[in-house]
Amino acid sequence: MSNTMDQTSQQEGLTEQASAKVEEAASKAQDKASELREQGSMRLREQVDQRSTEVGTQVSSLAEALRRSGTDLQNEGNDKAAQLTSQVADRLEGLGSYLQRMSGDEVMSDVESFARRRPWMLAGVGLLAGVAASRFMKASSEKRYDESRALSQTGYSTSQVSAGASQS
Known about the structure:
By secondary structure, this protein is an all-alpha fold. It has helices at residues 2-75, 79-101, 104-117, 119-154, 158-167.
Protein backbone atom coordinates (compact mmCIF):
# COMPACT_ATOMS: atom_id res chain seq x y z
CA MET A 1 0.00 0.00 0.00
CA SER A 2 2.86 2.33 0.83
CA ASN A 3 4.41 1.48 -2.53
CA THR A 4 1.17 2.42 -4.34
CA MET A 5 1.02 5.74 -2.45
CA ASP A 6 4.61 6.51 -3.41
CA GLN A 7 3.87 5.78 -7.07
CA THR A 8 0.73 7.93 -6.95
CA SER A 9 2.58 10.85 -5.36
CA GLN A 10 5.41 10.46 -7.89
CA GLN A 11 2.91 10.53 -10.74
CA GLU A 12 1.24 13.61 -9.27
CA GLY A 13 4.64 15.26 -8.91
CA LEU A 14 5.52 14.45 -12.51
CA THR A 15 2.13 15.69 -13.65
CA GLU A 16 2.65 18.97 -11.81
CA GLN A 17 6.14 19.35 -13.27
CA ALA A 18 4.88 18.64 -16.78
CA SER A 19 2.02 21.07 -16.28
CA ALA A 20 4.42 23.75 -15.06
CA LYS A 21 6.68 23.17 -18.08
CA VAL A 22 3.71 23.41 -20.47
CA GLU A 23 2.54 26.63 -18.83
CA GLU A 24 6.06 28.07 -19.03
CA ALA A 25 6.36 27.14 -22.72
CA ALA A 26 2.92 28.61 -23.46
CA SER A 27 3.88 31.82 -21.68
CA LYS A 28 7.12 32.08 -23.67
CA ALA A 29 5.26 31.43 -26.92
CA GLN A 30 2.68 34.09 -26.05
CA ASP A 31 5.43 36.60 -25.23
CA LYS A 32 7.22 35.84 -28.51
CA ALA A 33 3.97 36.17 -30.49
CA SER A 34 3.28 39.50 -28.85
CA GLU A 35 6.80 40.68 -29.64
CA LEU A 36 6.50 39.59 -33.28
CA ARG A 37 3.09 41.28 -33.61
CA GLU A 38 4.55 44.51 -32.25
CA GLN A 39 7.50 44.31 -34.67
CA GLY A 40 5.14 43.70 -37.60
CA SER A 41 2.95 46.59 -36.55
CA MET A 42 5.97 48.88 -36.26
CA ARG A 43 7.19 47.86 -39.74
CA LEU A 44 3.74 48.47 -41.19
CA ARG A 45 3.59 51.94 -39.63
CA GLU A 46 7.06 52.74 -41.00
CA GLN A 47 6.09 51.55 -44.48
CA VAL A 48 2.83 53.53 -44.48
CA ASP A 49 4.71 56.61 -43.29
CA GLN A 50 7.39 56.25 -45.96
CA ARG A 51 4.93 55.46 -48.78
CA SER A 52 2.54 58.24 -47.86
CA THR A 53 5.40 60.75 -47.91
CA GLU A 54 6.52 59.46 -51.33
CA VAL A 55 2.98 59.64 -52.70
CA GLY A 56 2.59 63.12 -51.23
CA THR A 57 5.70 64.27 -53.08
CA GLN A 58 4.41 62.77 -56.34
CA VAL A 59 0.97 64.32 -55.89
CA SER A 60 2.56 67.72 -55.23
CA SER A 61 4.59 67.35 -58.44
CA LEU A 62 1.41 66.50 -60.33
CA ALA A 63 -0.26 69.61 -58.87
CA GLU A 64 2.64 71.74 -60.12
CA ALA A 65 2.34 70.23 -63.61
CA LEU A 66 -1.41 70.88 -63.63
CA ARG A 67 -0.83 74.45 -62.51
CA ARG A 68 1.59 74.98 -65.42
CA SER A 69 -0.94 73.44 -67.80
CA GLY A 70 -3.61 75.75 -66.41
CA THR A 71 -1.38 78.74 -67.04
CA ASP A 72 -0.82 77.56 -70.62
CA LEU A 73 -4.57 77.10 -71.10
CA GLN A 74 -5.24 80.57 -69.77
CA ASN A 75 -2.62 82.05 -72.11
CA GLU A 76 -4.42 80.31 -74.99
CA GLY A 77 -7.71 81.92 -73.91
CA ASN A 78 -9.36 78.80 -72.49
CA ASP A 79 -10.38 80.33 -69.17
CA LYS A 80 -12.90 77.69 -68.04
CA ALA A 81 -10.46 74.81 -68.50
CA ALA A 82 -7.72 76.89 -66.85
CA GLN A 83 -9.96 77.58 -63.85
CA LEU A 84 -10.92 73.90 -63.53
CA THR A 85 -7.26 72.86 -63.81
CA SER A 86 -6.32 75.38 -61.14
CA GLN A 87 -8.99 74.06 -58.77
CA VAL A 88 -7.84 70.47 -59.27
CA ALA A 89 -4.22 71.56 -58.73
CA ASP A 90 -5.22 73.30 -55.47
CA ARG A 91 -6.91 70.13 -54.19
CA LEU A 92 -4.00 67.95 -55.22
CA GLU A 93 -1.52 70.32 -53.62
CA GLY A 94 -3.49 70.15 -50.36
CA LEU A 95 -3.57 66.36 -50.51
CA GLY A 96 0.15 66.19 -51.28
CA SER A 97 1.10 68.44 -48.39
CA TYR A 98 -1.23 66.48 -46.07
CA LEU A 99 0.44 63.19 -47.04
CA GLN A 100 3.92 64.65 -46.61
CA ARG A 101 3.10 66.29 -43.28
CA MET A 102 1.20 63.48 -41.52
CA SER A 103 2.68 60.36 -39.99
CA GLY A 104 1.64 56.91 -41.14
CA ASP A 105 -0.41 56.40 -37.97
CA GLU A 106 -2.33 59.62 -38.57
CA VAL A 107 -3.01 58.71 -42.21
CA MET A 108 -4.25 55.24 -41.23
CA SER A 109 -6.41 56.73 -38.48
CA ASP A 110 -7.95 59.22 -40.91
CA VAL A 111 -8.64 56.47 -43.48
CA GLU A 112 -10.27 54.29 -40.82
CA SER A 113 -12.36 57.21 -39.61
CA PHE A 114 -13.45 58.01 -43.17
CA ALA A 115 -14.34 54.36 -43.79
CA ARG A 116 -16.48 54.29 -40.64
CA ARG A 117 -18.29 57.51 -41.53
CA ARG A 118 -18.82 56.69 -45.22
CA PRO A 119 -18.64 52.94 -45.81
CA TRP A 120 -20.58 53.14 -49.09
CA MET A 121 -18.20 55.72 -50.49
CA LEU A 122 -15.25 53.52 -49.60
CA ALA A 123 -16.98 50.58 -51.29
CA GLY A 124 -17.53 52.75 -54.38
CA VAL A 125 -13.86 53.73 -54.47
CA GLY A 126 -12.94 50.05 -54.18
CA LEU A 127 -15.35 49.21 -56.98
CA LEU A 128 -13.88 51.90 -59.24
CA ALA A 129 -10.35 50.71 -58.47
CA GLY A 130 -11.38 47.14 -59.29
CA VAL A 131 -12.97 48.17 -62.59
CA ALA A 132 -9.88 50.19 -63.52
CA ALA A 133 -7.61 47.26 -62.65
CA SER A 134 -9.73 44.82 -64.66
CA ARG A 135 -9.71 47.12 -67.69
CA PHE A 136 -5.94 47.40 -67.43
CA MET A 137 -5.57 43.64 -67.16
CA LYS A 138 -7.92 43.08 -70.11
CA ALA A 139 -6.06 45.56 -72.29
CA SER A 140 -2.67 44.08 -71.44
CA SER A 141 -3.93 40.50 -71.93
CA GLU A 142 -5.33 41.36 -75.39
CA LYS A 143 -1.92 42.68 -76.40
CA ARG A 144 -0.20 39.53 -75.11
CA TYR A 145 -2.79 37.37 -76.89
CA ASP A 146 -2.27 39.20 -80.18
CA GLU A 147 1.51 38.83 -79.86
CA SER A 148 1.32 35.12 -79.06
CA ARG A 149 -1.07 34.54 -81.98
CA ALA A 150 1.25 36.40 -84.37
CA LEU A 151 4.20 34.43 -83.02
CA SER A 152 2.46 31.11 -83.57
CA GLN A 153 1.42 32.07 -87.11
CA THR A 154 4.64 33.67 -88.34
CA GLY A 155 7.31 32.53 -85.94
CA TYR A 156 8.02 36.18 -85.10
CA SER A 157 6.59 38.39 -82.40
CA THR A 158 4.76 41.54 -83.48
CA SER A 159 7.56 43.65 -82.00
CA GLN A 160 10.14 41.77 -84.09
CA VAL A 161 8.01 42.15 -87.20
CA SER A 162 7.49 45.89 -86.67
CA ALA A 163 11.21 46.38 -85.87
CA GLY A 164 12.14 44.56 -89.09
CA ALA A 165 9.70 46.67 -91.09
CA SER A 166 11.14 49.90 -89.71
CA GLN A 167 14.69 48.79 -90.59
CA SER A 168 13.79 48.11 -94.23
